[in-house]
Amino acid sequence: LRLAAGLDSMVLGEPQILGQMKQAVKEAEAAGALGTTLHQLFQRSFSVAKEVRSSTEIGSHSISMAAAAVRLAGQLFEDLARTRVLFVGAGEMIELTATHFAAKTPRHMAVANRTLERGEKLATRFGAEAVRLADLPERLHEFDIVVSCTASSLPLIGLGAVERALKKRKHRPMFMVDLAVPRDIEPEVAQLDDVYLYTVDELAQ
């Protein structure tokens, strides 16, 4: 119940874990591997999570982080309407952050996700481009702003990839936000000139 409600998340109340649990239940049901007891247990946990979210302000923390990301990007780029924004992942946190950025009408938005179909679904909602995760290293230089939040156990964006992207950008600045736990972007990236990298911990302050 604590897990579903987001009480055990690094970012209190973040909705991604609940989304992952719902997806796991869906896949287990499709495979015929979910018994009656487990089904009832999960439905109960989803119900409790909904009640916690609606009767408290636990979800507002995620909203404030999305808003903070947009505000900080606005401090680096004079006009967000002229920027190109890449979202890595297609979970609820990315959807929330994309909603905040979309309100600033950036010049171009793209969504890269491990499952292309899910990425396309989110991209369609925002009139964005769907990008294959495998194409990320070759496409990174095209974007001024990168926001990442996946469930990957290993970093998806490495130091070398960002160094190459900066070279192609002729060292125009990049604003990067890593909302994932564990990290999607290698910590060493923060040491690069022309990169402004913010993590969950920094945005939560």
TrEMBL record:
Keyword annotations from UniProtKB, A to Z: NADP, Oxidoreductase, Porphyrin biosynthesis
Bilayer-crossing regions: none
Alphabetized GO MF terms: glutamyl-tRNA reductase activity; NADP binding
Domain Glutamyl-tRNA reductase N-terminal: 2-56
Top-level lineage group: Eukaryota
Family note: Belongs to the glutamyl-tRNA reductase family.
Protein's recorded name: glutamyl-tRNA reductase
